[in-house]
Amino acid sequence: xxxxxxxxxxxxxxxxxxxxxxxxxxxxxxxxxxxxxxxxxxxxxxxxxxxxxxxxxxxxxxxxxxxxxxxxxxxxxxxxxxxxxxxxxxxxxxxxxxxxxxxxxxxxxxxxxxxxxxxxxxxxxxxxxxxxxxxxxxxxxxxxxxxxxxxxxxxxxxxxxxxxxxxxxxxxx
Length: 173
What we know:
The chain has helices spanning about 10-15, 110-120, 160-170; strands spanning about 5-10, 20-30, 30-35, 35-40, 40-50, 55-70, 75-90, 105-110. It is α+β, with helices and mostly antiparallel strands.
């Protein structure tokens, strides 16, 4: 298993007095958080504070991810901003079920948390541009690159009867 580049050793902080703070600057040109997510870049500052319950991590991170436009399927770079605000309990036995904790070795891997927060900060509907025209329903051409020449007057033969009714209504029958 490959070790995460967001794994930090906070053993020294566990030995420190309560209230001790360590500031860490993150500046990764690109970082693969999982098989399905690579952030390019990942920048920001986090602070780790020793508390009576463990280590409190907070910070503001900014990044970007390459996502697909929902209309034309072109890859689009989407900026992502998110806030870390998480307590890692120590000792691990003191952590409530489902909560994060500092390993006995003093290590904290922030990759799962950063992955979760970056996925939550992604827009539900990604567009390459606000007025994206999408793909032609007939030939699949990207309409942002120009007209494909398909006849947009042709209708599905199953709807021909409805078209006939509309035409009759327009003609006043």
